[in-house]
Amino acid sequence: LRHAPLVEYEVVVVDDGSTDGTGEYIRSEQAAGRLGRVVYVPLERNGGATRARNAGVRASRGETIVFIDSDLVPHARGGAVGGLGFLAEHALALDAARAAEPGQSDRAFTYGRVVNTHDFDDPTSEPFKLSDRSAAFFATGNVAISRARLADACALLPERQRTPEGVRDERTGQLEACGPFDAAFSSYGWEDLELGERLRQRGARIAHAPRAVGFHWHPALSAAQLPALLETERQRGANGARFFARHPNWRVALMTQLTPLHACAWAVLTLGGLLNGATLRPLASALCEAKRPGL
Known about the structure:
By secondary structure, the chain is α/β, with parallel strands linked by helices. The chain has helices at residues 22-31, 49-59, 86-99, 147-153, 191-201, 226-246, 250-256, 260-269, 277-289, and strands at residues 11-16, 38-43, 64-68, 72-74, 108-117, 142-146, 167-168, 175-176, 205-217. It has a 5-stranded mixed sheet with strand order 3-6-5-9-4. Strands 1-2 form a two-stranded parallel ribbon. Helix 1 links the parallel strand 1 and strand 2. Helix 4 (147-153) crosses helix 5 (191-201). The longest helix has 21 residues, at 226-246. The chain is globular and about 55 Å long. It starts with 10 loop residues before the first strand and ends in a 6-residue tail after the last helix. The model has no long low-confidence stretch (mean pLDDT 86).
């Protein structure tokens, strides 16, 4: 972000109860006169992505908010030859989209390109692949949106979340301020797409910003990761059902695969449930050991 040719921006870092020294690093850098644009928001305990993102939105001061996840590396020059930088590319795409709709100044939001990579040492060397394409309307990996548009989406939150008292977090039991992310999605999965569904219903429009590139790093699959991955998928499934209950339409049914066609496909592919996390774990472990996790 030091390469960003923008005069006014801030970087809001939400520390969701981490234990890896993030807080100590930021405080030491700021004490040394560096990271002056960083707003550090420490949370006492891990509460999940929804709570962390809501805290970040509340702490921010800008009119436009850019979301990136903790495993995404923004490209310094926007990922293109002659690129102006990650933030500037989002700003240019936003300006162009808004100029095309006079009087609808905050309806458009920009969605940058996300490139998946296993290369931790040099993530920006990864080329864009067909498998990196996303059909999501709104996802927090690399997106820029106006604060006003996020506030407008809060109008479609459940009524209990729009009271001054907020909503009680299902995992922590704490009373949290509402929105823009639905606090009921306190475990893994779908919280950003659920917000996207509300944004769509309120008239938001997507504008792609392919020159604003972020590299999504995740480690290569190993046998040791399997239990955690299965728990993640369990949480994703529960939140998928919650997502569809909130928005019972065909778009969400297809996204969450809660359709009769998907149920039939699941029954065939898993032999009626015989092939599952427990029965396939020996095979999955062997493939990981053989460096063939893609299979």
